[in-house]
Specification:
With about 425 residues, this protein is mainly α. It is built from 17 helices and eight strands. It starts with a helix and ends in a 6-residue tail after the last helix. The structure holds (2R)-2,3-dihydroxypropanoic acid. The site of (2R)-2,3-dihydroxypropanoic acid has 4 residues, from loops.
Length: about 425
């Protein structure tokens, strides 16, 4: 089987009748940012199925615009925390937090792969939902209009146990009323997953939000974990640019003006996360007000939003990281004392982040380096399979196997991909 056919087969195998699971058993539901990448992957060979991925995710959207992190379309007992822990009575059940908003970017790409009346009609139905989700980000997570949105749970950043969150997480109590019955560590070596104490804090935060009745203002006020994640903010800025292009065709002039105004606030606010002393974009702890002094792969993502002012410095950093760890892009600076090459978001390479960084480098004029990051990603997948993540020193595939979003990236990195 060719590499392309193998990648398509992973997407077909993880299809649960219109939506995809990230991988069998370890993640048996539909995840928000996973599905955005899956949609882009399907768009390279089956645009109709790509639309379906987005439409199924939006079945879980809340009335206030929130697109949840997880939609529990069908019961499964191989994942913790399931719907009973979130305690949210909706149909379909969902979690009550979100994830990095790649969706508008994905939808625009799916549209480009499906010109003609069917693509237009499906986009016309999806556009208002995307508009509402971006309004939710502004209203729920940046009510003061600073231009930077807050994330309230490490799961919302998608980079759950990044060392960038250690100090902010230390503020979160470890007691829980919920019995923690992890299932992930029976699927994957615990050395590759977050620690037990991390889960105690993750679940404590879920309980804080449950006690706040899932009300956005109460959650924002009550959360002991509140960060302006550079990754989420860069992805959102990029998604706003894509939404603006869609609004010109599917929305009203007033909506386009509203999105443009948010972009005008977000772009300079994101620039303020540049830390000249450390030569990197850094997340900010919104409780202490301090920059979080850990360089991570998220710090390259402003390139994905077209922020080119520091492209040359970021390119130098990527070259240095490649000397310390053979495969780019480690999720944490390989020179940092908290770098752990095998443990989830504390060091391993993630194909989806690489794809966004390569796209950003290309957009910001660093074309040769973009190709080098893409080549590293192809080499990792060729050697380590469609793994969840990869050891940046050896290229070994780790975490879950046959991962949807890694297969999607393999398809996106094919020359001439839609
Ligand atoms: C998990 O459970 O590991 C996920 O990252 C949460 O989204």
């Amino acid at each position: 089987m060719s590499g392309i056919e193998a990648a398509r087969q992973v997407l077909r195998d993880n299809d649960r009748g219109g939506y995809s699971v990230p991988t069998d058993r370890l993640y048996p539901f539909q995840w928000n940012w996973d599905s955005a990448f899956v949609a882009m992957g399907f768009a390279t060979f089956d645009p109709g199925r790509a639309w379906s991925e987005i439409e199924w995710l939006l079945r879980g959207q809340w009335e206030d615009g929130l697109v949840p992190q997880i939609v529990f379309h069908a019961p499964a007992d191989t994942y913790f925390p399931g719907p009973e822990v979130w305690g949210i009575r909706r149909e379909p059940p969902t979690s009550g937090i979100t994830q990095p908003p790649v969706l508008a970017t994905a939808a625009r790409r799916v549209l480009a792969a499906s010109p003609g009346p069917e693509g237009e009609a499906r986009m016309a139905a999806v556009y208002p939902r995307l508009r509402d989700s971006h309004r939710w980000w502004a209203a729920a997570r940046d009510p003061g209009g600073t231009g930077l949105v807050a994330t309230l749970h490490p799961w919302e950043t998608g980079m759950d146990n990044s060392p960038a969150w250690d100090a902010a997480l230390d503020r979160v109590p470890t007691d829980t009323r919920t019995e923690i019955r992890r299932r992930d560590t029976s699927h994957v070596d615990p050395a590759f997953r977050p620690r037990a104490i991390d889960y105690q804090r993750f679940i404590h935060l879920v309980e804080v939000f449950r006690d706040a009745g899932w009300d956005p203002a109460r959650m924002l006020a009550a959360s002991p974990f509140r960060v302006a994640d550079v990754g989420t903010n860069a992805i959102l800025l990029r998604a706003e640019q894509d939404l603006l292009a869609l609004a010109d065709r599917f929305g009203s002039p007033a909506e386009a003006a509203e999105i443009a105004a948010r972009i005008d606030r977000a772009a300079p606010a994101l620039e303020k996360l540049w830390d000249a002393a450390r030569g990197h974009y850094l997340s900010r702890d919104l409780v202490s007000g301090e920059a979080i002094p850990v360089r991570t792969s998220a710090g390259f993502l402003p390139l994905f939003a077209g922020q080119a002012g520091h492209a040359a410095a970021l390119a130098d950093t990527l070259r240095r990281w490649a000397e310390a760890a053979r495969f780019r892009v480690p999720s944490t600076d390989p020179g940092h004392p908290l770098f752990e090459p095998l443990r989830y978001w504390r060091g391993p390479v993630w194909a989806v982040v690489n794809w966004m960084i390569a796209e950003g480098l290309r957009r910001c004029g660093e074309v040769a380096l973009a190709e080098a990051v893409a080549a590293d990603t192809r080499a990792l997948i060729a050697a380590g399979g469609f793994s969840e993540y990869f050891d940046p020193r050896t290229g070994q595939g780790i975490g879950g196997a046959t991962f949807s979003w890694t297969a999607a990236v393999a398809l996106l990195l094919e020359p001439g991909a839609a």
